[in-house]
Queue: 4 jobs
Job 1
Amino acid sequence: MGLFSRFRRRSPHDHERDGETGFFPLYESQRGFSADDDFAPSATPRFSPDYNKWDQRLSSLDSEVERERRRRLPWWRPSKYRGRRKRWWAVRVFVAAILLFFAIVAWLAITAPLSKSLEPIAAPQITLLASDGTPIARSGAMVDAPVEVGRLPPHVVEAFLAIEDRRFYSHWGVDPRGIARAIWTGRGGGSTITQQLAKFTFLTPEQTLTRKAREALIAFWLETWLTKDEILERYLSNAYFGDNQYGLRAASMHYFYRKPENLLPQQAAMLAGLLQAPSRYNPAKHYDRAKRRMDLVVGAMVAEGYLTEAEAAALPAPRLDVRTRDDLPTGTYFADWALPIAREGVEASYSRQAFTTTLDAGLQGLAGRVTSRAALGGAQVALVAMRPTGEVVAMVGGKDYASSPFNRATQAKRQPGSTFKLFVYLAALEAGWEPEDTIANTPIEKGSYRPKNSRDNYSPTITLEDALATSSNVAAVRLFDEVGSENVIRTARSLGVTSPLPEGDPSLALGTSSMTLLELTSAYAGVAANSFPVRAYAFPKAEESWWDWILTPEDNISSRAHSDLEQMLRAVINRGTGRAATLPVANYGKTGTSQNNRDALFVGYAGDLVVGVWVGNDDNSPLDGVTGGGLPARIWKDFMRGALSLPEPRPSASPDPEGPIQPFDVEDGATIPLDDNGSSISFDDDGITISTEIEGMPLDFRLDDNGLAVESAEPDR
């Protein structure tokens, strides 16, 4: 209270007691007036208070209070910076930009892979070889070893500098004068060699301001960490020169059959002119354009003092020396599948590489001939041949790769039809069923899903072997329900099927889920080898170590179930829907036809080959009378006969009437092939059955005690 008592108005008694004349204390003074003072109340006042000074002090105090209040505000509050002067903002923005720039450069120095500028910008050329060393395909860019600036003639380097970056050795990655010249003249992009190296090494070719800013930043970074010669070497070793040629060494060898160290001035000038538009100035296709562009480069060299007028005028037009190379396809169905696998294990380098594949050149040629002569009409075809280990030896993905490179063996997912029944019957055998066990073969009249047998061929019961051989749909669905969808799916998964398989869907038994032909054939290979899962591969595998053998899980079928399954698959060919695939050796397989005849398949094995064949339309439209037991089975048989070097069937010679009579004993139930179209004859105790196919319709001619009868054999579904 002592502070405020000084401003309290005192009473006269207080004045007398204090011995002072009464007054009101102000800021200027804390003492009373005396009679001697000039401005005492009793005297004439000659001084007035300095109110302006008071205002200034009060304003200063208010400013200090406001600054203190702002200082205590959090940094993210806008009011903390309100009222700042433009100069204050300009200084801080400039400093922040400088700090941000150096921070980004430092971040690039730590995180950006500088070694990437040493790698080729295009995948190097890879040549695929068949198992016998025969080249089958070549893909990738033509690249060669990097060049060294110190070993190049001066006129080679000068040609590129004159047309691409005249001030290369004097700027810091970005050339403001070059940019200004490009804007003023309207010619050129103003990009330096360093910027171009940054663009095709680290960035995409998009034309945006953001990309240009990043390009300039990376160019500055490259200039910081590399010497000028190193930048130029990496640029010349990666630039595109047209005709699939990347790098100066590959281009000089391609166009002039000369090493870059031996290039003549006119040759170097022509190569330097290609960089602006390699396809447009390609001398192998547009020599006149390339020559005009070369003259422009020579003029730039004269302007920079690299050549005199007389030397430039004396330069002749360079003569091309494009050497012919072995013409190999850049892609085939097999190569398109194998190349990505090959590149996975290839480190980026400038060297061309060759890989030996599992493809058998002879079997591949046979597959091409067999599929090309098949009566496909407008339909497409696919064929995969592999060893039981998964080694793919032949692949056809369509009728004509040139017109359609889409691989229907590895890319198309189609319904497998009744070939999927393999998993249903195998699951049943592993659950304890036997081929002689019976199951109802009557129409299914309950439930939401009611499949039908082809041509309404039913019977009270049917054995599992006959059900698979004749491809009974109702029997397969009933067996699927008995075994359980989870067991069928587990069996398919164990054999290597990875495609989606809906659990609890009875139509799965008839192959309504989609998968690739390669995947399906690999599953059958697991049955053939009785070791699964089998993974298809295109390159020879390294010998497996004992440790890998322990860690690699493999499964197999019990010997009883495997024997029963092969007995049933053999019955499909001997007396079932696969009679058209009959061979004079033991063979096993299954036909498949999807709903409405959209897909027709035959997958089987004989000897050491597992082969899958698919026929269908790309638009998934129905086939005209083609079933799995028809055209696909005949293609399979045609390929297998040539692949296994089986003799063509020939009519036996007439017996010598004077010679001894030879017995002609035929085992009951045995089937004898009659021709290449699947016709066969079988004998039993009651008579003879001749099975054939007429205009796509399978027929059985039965001769017994009741006479001759003609029956329509049930086609596979």
Job 2
Amino acid sequence: MNKSNKLVRMSRVLSMAFIIFMKIYWYKLRKKPEVEWEKLWGEIGTRFRKTLFELEGLLIKIGQLLSTRADLLPQAFIKQLHDLTDKVPPSDWNEIHRIIETEWDKPLHEHVLSIDKDAVASASIGEVYKGVLKDGTAVAIKVQRPNIQSIVEIDFRTLGIIIWFADHFVPIPKGFINFKVLFKELRQVIERELDYKKELESLLSFKERYKDVGIVQIPSVYSDLSTSRVLVMEWVEGIRLTDAVALDQLEVNRHQLAERLIEVFLPQWLEPGTFHADPHPGNVLVSKEGKIILLDFGMVGEITRKDATYFQGLIESFLTKNYTKAVECLSHLGFLLPEADSRTMERLLADLMSIQPEQLKELDIISFKLELNDMIQALPIQVPTRFVFLGRAYVTIEGTIIDLSSKEELIDIAKPVFMKWLNKQGNNKWAYVWQWIQAQPIFKIFHSVTEFLQLPQKLEQLKETEQRRQFQFTIYENTKRQLFQLTLLGIIGIASGAYLLHPLTLNLSIALFIVSSIGYFLCNYKQQKWMKYMHEKRRR
């Protein structure tokens, strides 16, 4: 199968998507029990995974992103994508050789003494080869895969078609992932990754950022040999954080390595600016001296100043047990859906945070996280689309830290690192102290009295508003379902009329199909407009 052939790729992906959509609709119309739905999502995950491995390219990265969305997608589906890796067979050396010489506009031997023809690493977009420059310096030469630009463009066109279809015909639940925003975010990140000049800029930016941090090592880059398709960097030897035998021989222990990982990545997640969006074990190594080595800055995300402020406030709220403030931060960040009840969320956070570190020793962390994912799916909580890459980076580093240290030590490691980071923030410390004071029981009494007096009126207003919203949403959903059924009836009628050569049936079915389709689109447009209005109104 020719993976770079436009028709082959589009037909494979579109046919897979169509079969998945039809199965979901069929189960929905027949009102299948929950057990049957679990089996279906397992089958869908298996088919999805198989197609990704066969076609590779951009699709692998999409699978990796979806594997982090346990807050939205069924566990049976997520399970099939857990160990999805961005590792594909290397390209033919002759093609790689041609790309390098084309980009350098010179024969290869004019810049390098030697280069290994076997790739050190091979991913969906680029491959890395080890070479030696004329002055004897060992370098890593990252080369873009042949035809990857056209493959990515084909995949984006195909995804655009699928998202358009899903947006208009698939009954996506309220608060589900915004596919349009995700598509836009994904396109920006991948297009950036396809331009190695931008990766060079990111690498230099991170190198400047960590120049005074002794525990971090970032390779130097050779700008004069780097182009949009070739990136030449210093060759850095490192140990994978998954290599248990090699880690035990280091000067630093695993606890210290876990602490250093948090120290390196925590500021990226809490401060405005860019963060490493792909910190998998091949991109985050450790030197013999115990330094954290950061590689591959092709995928980076960005945190705005506003979001950084709320993230900082969220962690401070957890540490001071000020769950009212925590819920406010979650709401401002977009993690809570409009129908979320703040009081319920405060009690839930208080219960979760009441688990003491010593209790974690008695818990099966994996089972606990699975139960937590199920609970999150049942609550009005979502991960905003703009934080998909941040969430992926966090989940990856969290898994690495848990592997390095015992599970019950996670909180003990993170807290002092956060406090150390906080002490460097200057005036922000006083905001932390003020939040601690607000969290004390004596301070909360004044707020509680006022809120208690206003509670009956607020509850009545909330109840009335929610009932009206639910009633309106039900009307839209019922109308869409009826119009969709009429559209299907029209399609069946058209097929029957054409097969039986019955003009009247054919014409009536065409008319029914056109009218019901237009009605469905109009109803769907009005529903989306109404939901957007209600969401903005609720947040004001």
Job 3
Amino acid sequence: MKLDGKVPGGPLEEKWTQYRSSMPLVAPNNKRRLEVIVVGTGLAGASAAATLGELGYNVKAFTFHDSPRRAHSIAAQGGINAAKNYQNDGDSVYRLFYDTIKGGDYRSREANVHRLAEVSRNIIDQAVAQGVPFARDYGGLLANRSFGGVQVSRTFYARGQTGQQLLLGAYQSLSRQISLGTVKMYNRHEMLDIVRIDGKARGIIARNLITGELERHAAHAVVLASGGYGNVFYLSTNAMMCNVSAAWRAVRRGALMANPCFTQIHPTCIPVSGDYQSKLTLMSESLRNDGRVWVPKKQEDAKAIREGKKTGLDIPEADRDYYLERRYPAFGNLVPRDVASRAAKTACDEGLGVAPTGLAVYLDFSDAIMRYGKSKAHSSGNDHPDEKLVKELGTAVISEKYGNLFEMYEKITGENPYIYPMKIYPAVHYTMGGLWVDYNLETNIPGLFALGECNFSDHGANRLGASALMQGLADGYFVIPYTIGTFLSKEIRTPKFDPNGEAFKATEKAVKDRIDNLLSVQGNQSVESFHRRLGSIMWDYCGMSRNAEGLRKAVQMVRELKAEFYNDVFVPGGNNEYNPELEKALRVADFMELGETMILDALNRDESCGGHFREEYQTEDGEALRDDENFTYVAAWEYPGNGQEPILHKEELVFENVELKTRSYK
């Protein structure tokens, strides 16, 4: 299979403008003839459905939540990037493009990333017009803060609730189209399969999660915006319902899964505290603006902290190792997520961890509190404030910037982070891999498009913080409304598809047979127990670090677990009713197949890059060692099923505008 990225010609900075001005269009009167299905109502899905409806297409939008507002985009905390250079600190479209390419360890497609940087500027204007309450400075202008992997301040934010506020803006736009009738909303419906007719995506099979009824929905094109697959690891920062099923069902129908082993480990998560946990809680990367990461220099101090005999307050400054500042002086605590995560793991592996499990480092705000307090006192005319006043004033500033995050931390851990340094440890967060798409965001299945975290296109081997919201809204508001026309312009004379046709009936039967098969096993083990075991395998052997021996072992373990699942899983209840255990079983079954493919992808990639760290391929000082000669490509996997090995297809990456070189944040 030859993969064509369909990247337009011309200079990089002119590609999108020229292409957008010359691509095929669908006239307004013809848009009314066409139907589009959008699966998912997070930032990418809601913005796409709203914009396509505004343009005049007939849109059907699907979410398995009771409301589009429940989409996981709501959980994003720290901010959204945009190259507006409001801080006058040297930012530009090119710098955002370069930072993203470099942050992804040179495993992204140049043209897609540059387009993302270009349209990022429009997103902020769109969101402000919707009333998104971005933070503002003293003069009323929009404020910015820094995030990891960059040396400018380009991140717009609304305290620690940026995703929620942006989603409410997109939801407003979506609700308007629903009220006008251009978008028909299907809440509590889960897509279980793609329907293909003559090779093209022409609809979906969805399950009404309240009644259990299977439904057929037809359209001229299908847009997937269903998020990432981090929950293959069981414990992650994702909501428990996040899954891969929409994307993976497309893979089972012939779509390619690209770079599935590229998983982002986020460095600032509340550490695991016990086996009872079903998910982890993220603390925003924005905290690294003011928090300093450290561990004790002495193992005996770390041991005393783990045993509860000391706290972080008992360790004098001279006995603290601010290891990110020491190892990466140019970026300090704001190195990219993959770099910060591996550094934390290294510190804990050396016996310097500060949680009872040994798996935690400190994120300390004491310096920031004192710095802000002195500044606040000085601005009030008090040049010689006492320490108590400085702490009070500084705490108020930190509370204003991060208060909801600090409250969340205290509720979960029982420790006051204004007094004691936070304990954090890396955890699975975002997935850079996803469905392979071309420049139009179209998969290798004609008429099937993928947006946001659901596709692979923009982040390479490691996503920079605050870029997920940027990509989701860029794809939904400013890319897909144009590029879907390249397909639909050829479909204006195609009549509406009959959901009672043979292709729909056959696909529905395949879904029903799959459900009946799971219900009929009536084994002895819960779905949850299988998911937990799968997650343990994935984290232990395909997590923060990997090696060939462990990956080969993991492939066999996942295959054996999958066979055991189909022989001994117990799914209570039936199909024609509300049955969350059945929903979970279908999703875990897909995670099993995805997990196998992820491991094979990691085994195939004999290099370290970004979030993919192979222990055999590292520099003398423990940094990732890429192999640009042999692995500068997108690994797009075909999954034939029926016991056959996944098949690798390659899209070679061509870099004409940046120099491939070893990343350095020192």
Job 4
Amino acid sequence: MPDGAATPPQAPSEPGATPEPGGVPAADGGGAGGGEAREVAGAEAGAEARWVTAVRVVAAVAGGLALFTAFPPLDWWPCAPLGIGLVAGSLYRTRPRRAAWLGYLAGAVFLLPTVAWVRTIGDDVWLMLVGTESLFYAAMAVLASYVYRLPAWPLWFGGLWVLMEWARGLVPIGGFPWARAGFSQGESMFTSYAALGGVPLVSFAVALCGALLAHVVLGGRATVVRRAVPLALALAVPVLGVMIPRPGDEGRTVNIGIVQGNVPGQGMYALGDEPAVVLRNHANETKRLAQAVRDGKLPKPDLVVLPENSTDIDPYRDETARRIIHDSVQDVGVPTLVGAVVAIGDEHRATRSLVWDPVTGPGDYYDKQHLVPFGEYTPFKEIVLALWERASLVGRQSIAGDRPGDLKMGPVTVGAVNCYEVAYDDTVRGTVRAGGTPLVVQTNNASYALSNLPPQQLAMSKLRAVEHNRAVVTAATTGISAYVTPDGKVSWQTRERVADMNVVKVPVRTQETLATRVGALPEWALMVMGAAAAGVAAWRGRRRVDRMRNG
């Protein structure tokens, strides 16, 4: 409802709604027929309440589905503000308890198809993940039910959305920052906000736009002029995003070879059961790239990037694996970033980005910092292993690295980011601040090939490119390998489940964006704003109830 607009009387059909000041129902006058009148009024109120609840449910479900369609592979990005607007509308002026289950419903409807790629591991894991993550949407909805009492509530709602996504990316067991609203905006009118405040600011802009659209529809008896204000603001948010300036080219480039070797299997057994087959596939594809360079079909690379897990044999411990890798790197003749899972002692391992020199062999490396729970390590190991036999497939428990992925390779220092980590703001930002340019994302999506995971991960690389003014090169075992320009445009990409390679000319940018410099400050400002607004609204509501009781 526009600020200052006339407030319609609180309908008795919404027992969960918060009455406006002065909206206390008048006392019944009694007399003959008074009891009968109250019964009729109560029946009508109950029927209308059921109708209103049904509308809320439809809006929550439609909002969750609309938000899903904004994500890859559909990429209907305008559906993100539309979906969030429907969710905001479903929660409008309802009680916290009702808001909780409506928020949970919207979150579950959104997440079920969005993270359907988890079904590769098992439907039970997929449902448990969705069930857990939907709790964050329920908590956000409870807080949002309070801010509707305040002027400018779409602003506070946007802050609460950022708070919810921050919490979801933090807990439990390291968080799950996938499917944040900002990640649906890889190439949209909202994308440039990433250069100012990172992915959280993109999510805020989308949520604010959606809440403003809901504000227009929920304006009650407001005049056309007063409805026009939030509508104009809703349209201004994406338009202003297009107008945000971006850093320009600096005139320096580097040629990067990208190798996608493919794997023989699929699903949980994507790497197959033949020893060293993944290693041979990537070594052979590296040699094919070297031959294409010699034949003049491709320009000579300054460095080559292989995917995460491009060798399924530890080259530190296996001489044959070491020889195969060194032979292929000598053939291409330039430093090559190899993805390897290496043993740490007798019980642990590390997911490693390893610089392999054609003369001196293995050298500097980066160990993955954000590990995949139940994929690279097993939380609550004894309990989980007792309940799920599949958990034993993790094998050795991974150890997280403790430093950013700035690795000197030929004429540049690349910023190594490993697969799952591209979803984590702090990891990518730390690598850029350490001097990484361009960014290199090594990933192994073999278990999730042809699902909606690979395109979602590529969309994250688009946002990261704009956020930090860095080109992003992605090398994947089965796809999607790609090159994303600093403007967030995909310049080249592979198909999935094929062997492929290429050499791309990549701009080297060193200028930092505001988002890189200020880090998490915009996110914290937005979260505190939303939480403070919810606290103020709850306190005011409690004082009003106390006055009514004592009046």
